[in-house]
Amino acid sequence: MAKKGKKSSRIQEKRAKRGIELSGGDECVKKKWLRLVGFVLTILLLFSGYYVYSMFSFLEDVSTTKFSSGDSPLTTATWEGKEQVNILFLGVDTRVKGEQPRSDTILLLSVNPVTKKASLFSVMRDTYLDIEGVGQAKINAAFANGGPELLISTVQDFLDIPIHYYVATDFQGFAKIIDAMGGVDVNVKEAMVHPDDGVYDIKLAAGQQHLSGQQALMYVRYRGTARADFDRTERQREMVKIVGQKMATPGMALKLPKILKEVTPYTESNIAAGDLYKLIALGLKADTTGMQTEQLPPVEFLSEEYNMYGEQVLWPDIAGTRQFVKEKIGATASTTAGTPPADGGSETAGPAGGGQDSGQEQPVAENPSDSGKQKGQVTGEYVNLRQMPGTENEVIGQVYAGQVLIIEETAGDWYYVRTPDGMYGYVTASLVQLL
Predict the structure, then answer these.
(1) Which regions span the lipid bilayer (predicted)?
(2) What is the end-to-end Cα distance of the chain in Å, rounded?
(3) Distance separating alpha carbons of residues 156 and 178, to the nearest angstrom
(4) Please, how many CA atoms are within 13 Å of residue 158, restricted to the half-sphere of its CB?
(5) Residue 360, CB-side half-sphere exposure with 13 Å CA sphere
(6) Which residues contact 116 (CB under 8 A, 6 or more apart)?
(7) pLDDT per residue over 135-173, tens digit each?
(8) Domains of the chain and CATH, by start
(9) Side-chain-facing half-sphere of 351: CA atoms under 13 Å
(10) Which of 42, 146, 299, 333 has its CB surrounded by the most CB atoms within 10 Å?
(11) pTM beyond 0.85, yes or no
């Protein structure tokens, strides 16, 4: 019995020792896992730090005035994060050294943070408007004469919506973005060939293919199709949609610091750090697959004409274009930057009347400052709107029978008026009946 008791005691001792060994093994495994988790967290913290650093470095570097003329103030609106946000993307042609470049591409992205609905518009660069300090000219002349500041002010006046942010980049910057993303897949509908300057020559075969940055630049710049700039702007909107969808993929988040680093030397923007995070968060939620893409002015609200210099231009129906944009974006309330234009000020326009049927009364949109001002109604079939009083001066548009004009001042036998489309000019008083 004593022998049996000793044997049982030894078994219990072994079991107890084995339990200690197992417990020690569990502790060892636990420590290994903790070290692994700590290592992963360290890597994540380092990456997050690098990510944040990249963001701040990018925003600091692109806030410098690469393209700004410095002649006029920036009139962008304030975005609080809950209302419609409008961002202007500008493609700039900087090939002519020593000259202020023109905006080769003007794209407007509008996102509704409530519905997550996104709309992308391309503004035709031949749209003929009244540009402050320049006069009647194609809209891309605004950038050449006053940088992004004047162009933003012109777009805000033209569309009657606030612009909150802008991003301007040149040809090289666009190509760098595409390359940093690893290229894009595009179906090129027809062969594109156009000799340029030896550096930006265009040569693309037709068919589905993977485009590099330089090839993607060829794709969005080509104007040799039957519909010329109309097709070109359509391809630009298509490219933005492709890039937006690719950027929304998880893998692209890892490449973002590299992309920002690549495009920094070629980019200018007014986006601040806090705004960028809000915009990225909104962009990830936005419905890019169902994004509407439209040209401005729409075909039904423009007419192709020749100006006094023999250039073919696009005269916009401003009232129709504004209504079109507002219907498409379904805008929520927003804070408009700047101050209202003074009497006779900077409302932009194409030809007065803008294709409206003659004989139909078109009441002018009134401002609070119009109180007490004289009004007049056009009595002739149509009346030329001139830049200065006198028949020898340039015709900048027409007003039609039945349209009501705000008379700003009288200059002899001429009235200086504001039209229903918001355009200012001189009309002969004999064909306007005072109301």
Answers:
(1) 33-53
(2) 130
(3) 29
(4) 28
(5) 8
(6) 282, 285, 286, 287
(7) 889 998 898 888 889 999 999 999 999 999 998 888 888
(8) 85-329 (3.40.630.190), 368-434 (2.30.30.40)
(9) 23
(10) 146
(11) no
